[in-house]
Amino acid sequence: MLAQLRGDFPDVTISKIRFLEAEGLVQPGRTPSGYRQFAPADVERLRFVLSAQRDHYLPLKVIKEQLDAADQGAASAEHTAAMPRLPRKLVSLDAPGENGGLPSPGDFETDREIRLTEEDLLRQAGIDAATLAELRQYGLVRPGAAGFFDPDAVLVAKTVKAMTEFGIEPRHLRAFRAAADREVGLLEQIVTPVYRHRDEDAQARGDEVVRELAALTVALHTLLVKAGIRAVTGG
């Protein structure tokens, strides 16, 4: 089962699958001696869950609601704006270009560290040196101690580049950096104790807590911005 998933999801582990099972997202069969048995439908279900987390930043609660709706033979109308309607047969959300041409974190997921030079970043993000200088000036991208960038810097640069088409400049986004730093400080207090547990599943649980909180943070930010725009425009 892991071999089938790791081609698209290199970071998937047994601990993560067991966590998803404990959350009710997959229910493999059991042999008389207690070993888990994953049918093709279970693998397909896991592929859907992992794609929804990675590519759409959805919390597990929302993913489970979508899966329950699919199991009942009807799509959930409440979340159709966030995800495609689910047919009876689950489909993967790995199709390229779903994000309007912008990359998603899954585009760079790997089981090894990736270090990018400044030239790599400029080429992959499609920006010039002056733009990168602005991004660094306002704290939107930061190289590591060795002077290299990670793949997230490419995602940030491409996102900012797309925002400039609406007249937004890097200097306008300093508030995003400050808000993100405040959120990191808050979430760190929550996830650090989870990672410090000594059992073998602590890493997987910590990773899932981070994913859940990140997804909820994105959802809350979107809702607050939409509400604020409606209030200002009277919409």
From TrEMBL:
UniProt keyword terms in alphabetical order: DNA-binding
SMART domains referenced in this protein's UniProt entry, alphabetically: HTH_MERR
InterPro entries hit by this protein: DNA-bd_dom_put_sf (IPR009061), MerR-type_HTH_dom (IPR000551), MerR_fam (IPR047057)
Keyword DNA-binding: yes
Annotated Gene3D superfamilies: 1.10.1660.10
Boundaries of every HTH merR-type domain copy: 1-69
PANTHER family (alphabetical): HTH MERR-TYPE DOMAIN-CONTAINING PROTEIN, REDOX-CYCLING DRUG-SENSING TRANSCRIPTIONAL ACTIVATOR SOXR
The protein's name in its UniProt record: DNA-binding transcriptional MerR regulator
Organism, scientific name: Amycolatopsis roodepoortensis
Lineage: Bacteria, Bacillati, Actinomycetota, Actinomycetes, Pseudonocardiales
